[in-house]
Structures are given as C-alpha cells and as structure tokens.
Amino acid sequence: MAQRQRGKQGTRRRTGAKAKRQVGYAVVGLGHFAQESVLPAFAHARGNSRLVALVSGDAKKARVLGKKHGVPVFGYEQFEECLALPEVEAVYIVLPNTMHAEYAVRAARAGAHVLCEKPLATTEAECREMIGACEESDVRLMTAYRLHFEKANLQAVKAVREGKLGEPRLFSSTFCFQLKTPNIRAEADKGGGVLWDIGVYCVNAARYLFRAEPVEVFAFYDRSGDARFTETEEAASVVMRFPEGKLAAFNVSFGAEAVATYRLVGTQGELHLENAYEAKGPIHWTLKSRGKTRRGKAPSRDQLAAELVTFSDCILQGKDPEPDGWEGLADVRIVSALYESARTGKPVKLEPIERKRRPTPEQEVGRPPAKTPELIHVQAPAR
C-alpha cells in the first residue's frame, strides 16, 4: 500500500506542472517503429508533449539517439532511475509484446502515466494487471491505437453512424506484407505472430465499425513451410460473428504483397478503404450510398503525434482516454480466442462484454506527416 501511495503522490506532483502545458515522456524501447514514428512525432506534439528520456538495451542507440535528442538514456536495468526523474510524467512503451505488462506496471507504480503500443499485452490476465496497477496508482493508461484519431477511419465511423450504408452487415479485410527476418514479429517468446502484429488492426476496425463485440470466432493459421516462420504463423484467415447478423472476415499474412484494405457492406451501401491501416501515406476511400458513389482521400498525417497530443490532454485535464486499457483488453481476448480456435480447429464463443466508449469523429487530430529520420542499428520490418 505504501508503494502505491507514493505513486499517487508522484502523479500529483508531476501533473501539478500544468502551467507549461507539456507532459514529459520517456520512450521505452528504441526499435524501428520507435525511431521511425514515435520519436519524430514529438516535433508535431510540442504544444503539450516533450521527450525527456529514453530507455534502451542497445549501447549504440543510447549513445547516438541520446545525443541527437539531448536527453538522458537509461538501460532497462535502470528503469526505476529513469522513472524517478521529476520531468518523467509518462512513458510510451514500444517494447516487444511480452514485455508490455511488466514495464507498464512498474511505471504505474512509480506514478507515471502509461501509453502502450498494441497489443496491450499477450494475455487477458496481463491486461487486467496493467489496468489495475494504473487505477491503483491513479494514473492514465492508453492503448496506442493511432487510427482512433485518423481522418479516413473516423469518417468511416461517421458514415456508419449516420446510416449512409443502411444497417452494416459484412466486414472484410486483407492486411499483409513481406516480413524481413530476423524480426521480433516472428519470435514466439517476444509475442510475435501475424495475428498479434497486424491481425489486431482488423479486429479493432471491425469492432469500431460495427460498434459491437463478437460473440464467436473461428481461425485457421499456417506457417507455409517458409524458413522465416519456424516459431510463429505466416498467415491467418479469420471469421467473427457479431450480434444482429453481422459478420466479419479477414486474411493477414507476413508472406504476401503489401496490402492494407477493408470493405464494409450494409443494407444500402458499401465503404472501401485502401491503405486503411498504414501509418504513412494517404488513405483512399470509396463510398457507395443509395445509388451514388463518392471517392476521396485523407492526406498522410503524423498519426503518432495525434496519440501524444490526445494522451497529454487527458493527463493535463484529468480525463480518461479513448482508447483506454479496456479497449486494448477487448482485442487481446479476441486474438487469444483466435489462436485457441486455430490450435483446436473449433470455433470459440466469447463471453459478452459491454463497451460504452467507441472512437468518434470528434477525436480526429491532424498533424503534418513526419520525416523519416536516420535510423540507428535497426532494419525495416518489410522487405
């Protein structure tokens, strides 16, 4: 109890520095995504967010990136030292999936707010531990779902909400790319696997478009005999049954041409997004509604800056974020059920849960696209 109380005191002390309207972040993990997308995002979020520390287990990254950004760098074994810095109010966790829960709980108990990459964790129990630790220490927890702030996806949500498609009935999606290995996405002990890495985007999109939770799921997966996938699956095919006659199906692969698309079909129209899940580049959309067809595109935006801006606002204003930890847990329980189905060859039924909050068009945050910096000691995941 004493430890949790210290965490609460630390939170009050830190968020008391509200006058300058900037939340200080430590970025934990300096892999490809952190370097290419997270670190550059602070330039477009400087109104309320600033980078104040880095945590890495790689000496070269620590030396070069610490100097470049002018912030101290800590090893993983020095994580508590990093959290003890008064300017560290929040952490952005960009670690392998199996490390999310440990570092989120440690941060929360030290009084730091937690922004954590998806998937929130790799088990429902770990998600609940993260949520509980943040609640007990009175800190915010946000799952880093960047598309909850992206224009095209939120306009899709709006189209459904306004009845442009009639009643939504069918969701279908394809998301794939050629994975370059070695890579943690293909390592079982790191929480790798195509469903954890990119399948979760399709699951989340189906949920926010249907504005409902699946009641039953079924999945196949395959390693395809490719030497890259000795520990995890290369591809998966999924069907999810939602209430009121709604069905979702998607295919994901680490061994196919790069595609990121979804289609939603309703009783009176359909909506199609190309480049739907990508962090960079424009997203093209086609809406067919009651006999009329419209096409357009949402420009490339800095989606990570949108996350930072939103989470910092929540911290400074004492609000709960959307997407929160429970949103992350909702997807983790579904992906876990998909793996169970694929292992057993049987459909898996899900206990009903209620989600009162969903992404809304009002959540859109627009920031110009970030430039790709020089990357240190990492390789891109796609071939």
Could you characterize the architecture of this molecule?
The structure is a single chain. Strand 11 (255-266) and strand 12 form a beta hairpin. The protein is an alpha/beta fold. It has two domains: 2-147 and 305-323, 3-Layer(aba) Sandwich (Rossmann fold), CATH 3.40.50; 151-299, Dihydrodipicolinate Reductase, domain 2, CATH 3.30.360. Mean pLDDT is 94; it is low at 1-19. Helix 2 (32-41) crosses helix 9 (303-317) and helix 8 crosses helix 10 (325-344). It has helices at 2-15, 32-41, 59-69, 79-84, 100-109, 124-136, 151-161, 194-210, 303-317, 325-344, and strands at 23-28, 49-55, 73-74, 90-93, 113-117, 141-144, 168-178, 216-222, 235-241, 247-253, 255-266, 269-274, 283-289, 292-298, 348-349. The chain is built from ten helices and 15 strands. The strands form two sheets. The protein has a nine-stranded mixed beta sheet with strand order 14-13-12-11-7-10-9-8-15. Strands 3-2-1-4-5-6 form a six-stranded parallel beta sheet, with helices on both faces. The termini are far apart.
Brief account:
Helix 6 (about 125-135) runs antiparallel to helix 10 (about 325-345), helix 7 (about 150-160) runs parallel beside helix 8 and helix 8 (about 195-210) packs across helix 10 (about 325-345). About 35% of the residues lie in helices and about 25% in strands. The strands form two sheets. It has a nine-stranded mixed β-sheet with strand order 14-13-12-11-7-10-9-8-15.
Apparent shape = globular
Radius of gyration: 20 Å
Estimate the mean pLDDT confidence. Answer: 94
The fraction of residues in strands falls at 15-25%
**Can you tell me the number of structural domains?**
2
CATH superfamily of the largest domain: NAD(P)-binding Rossmann-like Domain
Spans of at least 5 consecutive residues whose pLDDT stays below 50 are 1-19
The CATH architecture of the largest domain can be named as: 3-Layer(aba) Sandwich
What is the CATH top level name of the largest domain? Alpha Beta
Discrete helix count? 10
**Helix content range:** 25-40%
Going by helix content, strand content and strand pairing, the class is alpha/beta
Profile the largest sheet. Answer: 9 strands, mixed
Span of the ends, CA to CA: 49 Å
Enzyme class: oxidoreductase
Keywords: Oxidoreductase
Protein name: Glucose--fructose oxidoreductase
GO molecular function, one term: nucleotide binding
